[in-house]
């Protein structure tokens, strides 16, 4: 490590800024995107819109001041202005700002929140998803503090509405009836809208009631195109032989990753065809191309690939392969230029653009201070599971060290999902991450066990109704390999993770005493209680195998719940959870804490107020980074060494 390199501090991690939501202009000249701080110190995160030349010919410039939560940019059809959502007036409303600068113009003064906007190509209209306005009865109850919580009535339905830019009139489209709209896509010629809706805003079951609709804005009518897969999203239009199609992403049965489905909307019967069955890669994004078939991103092992739909074969064909992580794909009208977020081993996420089959150039540079840091070497791993299945993952070593300096104390960080993955991306985040722990002298193992994406649908679906099985043995196989190769010290092993990764950490320490320390962040301790209280509802039973109301038990989910093994736990564990987490409620952490207290197991339990499933407040992010590293230092640092694999 260079003696002149600055130290990696928690402040350096959380005080940076990150780009998101890139969208390329229809003419392919500009890319608009959002820049937000990693952690915020006030009541909400302030976000600004930026614009960059797609060819990199000029530096990016700030389009809005960043004094409000400006987000969700959408280009006008003429590429001269950007529509966006902002909470400047206290609720999310629609604004427009010209690319040449000037003050943003507010376009709506709606009594409910606006959650999505889509400018239409053939008319001065914008399709909106707008929540119902409070009624007079709602206002009366609020004034009188009559706030009884009536289940199913506390969330506002998102309705499809159309804003006339010439008159400012906002009209409802009644053809969808009493459905909650969650996604929109405008046909490139402006002729119709594709809409995805749920039966209710409640996520605990409504995601399984997704339906696709074709909306005629002239008549206000909607044609139902049938039930989709679970949690459908990202609808895009494309045309072949005069017939319009809508493709979308949704989760197939069984649980695990997404598939691309396609519907020929001109056909008499709406048939939802699976376009990705049998592929060894997993679709993650769809991008509409006005003058051709859609583009798509696919997770491909540790990397990402761009594919284009072959309209004749109705199969996706590879266009290019990209190193590391690429997401948030967007294409211009012709499809000749794309933009996306991209990150590689030592480069943080930034906005990139270029031709879909060529090299992408970096447009943004939101964290230049990180370039002065000496990072730990990040190595790709390829190994075999106990049953011979090929697996991959990453290994991050302490800065300035190599394998010959081992064995090192090893911390295994398990990803969430489980239908997620570790790509070969920059491993620094405001939660415990590879480079953060490596900078403290640890080797960090980032495995991609079964259940994740990047190796096809069968690989992702393996853990359905079987969590804690093959994914657990896959992780152990990787750890054993690193021990055998002299990288990891078998007497100084730690494990941690968040969400499903937190479940795996809790599961691990109930199965073995090999780990000397663990960290469980927003992790599942009891699957039956998660079905009862988590926002995923019965979707969680697709992982754990059962619901608590299926007879008197014992239930299959009891056999895969860490709480059932609490009496066996001897590993010190740090438990952290957001107080307002609706995905994995804090009750999961409390239950685990009480069980460990009952059995006298060493642990520390921390609740972060106001936080949901991910921690957003700056001070909480700082505390989590420092606390986690201190926890592993306490239990994994050898008294005869400096904790970095070398004698003290």
TrEMBL record:
One of its GO terms (biological process) is proteolysis. Residues 435-637 form the Peptidase S9 prolyl oligopeptidase catalytic domain. Gene3D superfamilies: alpha/beta hydrolase, TolB, C-terminal domain. One of its GO terms (molecular function) is serine-type endopeptidase activity. InterPro entries: 6-blade_b-propeller_TolB-like, AB_hydrolase_fold, Peptidase_S9_cat, WD40. Keywords: Hydrolase, Protease, Serine protease. This is S9 family peptidase. It comes from Trebonia kvetii.
